[in-house]
Specification:
With 60 residues, the protein is mainly alpha-helical. The protein has a domain of 27 residues. It contains 2 helices and no strands. The radius of gyration is 14 Å and the shape is elongated. The two termini are 27 Å apart.
Length: 60
């Protein structure tokens, strides 16, 4: 998948998360969902960055 397509997917996912915050659910539910979703988004963005730049500044 092209990097631009993956960025588009991430944008859509973030947009969906923002919309989901409007759902009448307990705050704890929203926080737990955000932790999970943001972790996955972060992993994807890091992977795309490494693929595009050829280096991993997060590597220990």
């Amino acid at each position: 998948m092209k990097a631009s397509e993956e960025f588009g997917e991430v944008i859509d996912r973030i947009d969906n998360l923002i919309g989901a915050l409007e759902l009448p659910m307990p705050a704890e539910f929203h926080v737990n969902q955000m932790k999970h979703e943001l972790s996955e988004i972060l992993d994807k963005l890091k992977r795309v960055y490494v693929e595009e730049e050829g280096e991993n500044p997060w590597e220990e």
